[in-house]
Amino acid sequence: MSPESTGQNKHNLTVYRRGFRTWRGNRPFWAGLFTMLGGAPIAYFPYADLQLGNMTLAMSTTAGAGSLIIGVLLITLGLTMWFHSIVRVFAGVAAILLALISIPVANIGGFVIGFLFALIGGALSISWAPGEPQPEEEAPHTAPLDKQQPESEYAEGALHGATVPPQQPGDHGTASGYGTSSGYDGGTHRAG
């Protein structure tokens, strides 16, 4: 392998990581993740079999179908928060309601683990708001160095407190006439 290949792979990893960070920042990522993590134990525990030596402990309940539906809906709401963040408030409220319903239906909300994750995910989804794009700051426009020096005796007098006669139209070399023949004063405004 050549030394360039390591750097190139490192660069690709950095690009993917920055892309993921940008994607994650434009949506309620943590809300969706917590909601999906809450749906997994709620859907899993009613169908899980725990082996303790030769003994099998089954958690199946009569409301196993309800637990599966609640868990799948929470996972779907978590994905909705990621990929359709415009409905984040609805998804958050629905996640909180499903988490509360899972307490009596799904083994005390997936043994409280799923309940807490879904509750936190729903609350995060409701409270998330998209960031405002920051305006680009423009560099201050300054006159070129040769234009910062006074161009006439009137300008030198103006710097030392003397009065300056008013500029006449077409007079481009006076104290206040930093403009050029094109009518611009060196800044972003037109000379008047």
TrEMBL record:
Coiled coil: none annotated. Pfam families: DUF6114. Residues 173-183 have a biased composition (Low complexity). The chain crosses the membrane at residues 28-45, 57-79, 86-105. Keywords: Membrane, Transmembrane, Transmembrane helix. Residues 130-192 are annotated as: Disordered. This is DUF6114 domain-containing protein. It comes from Streptomyces microflavus.
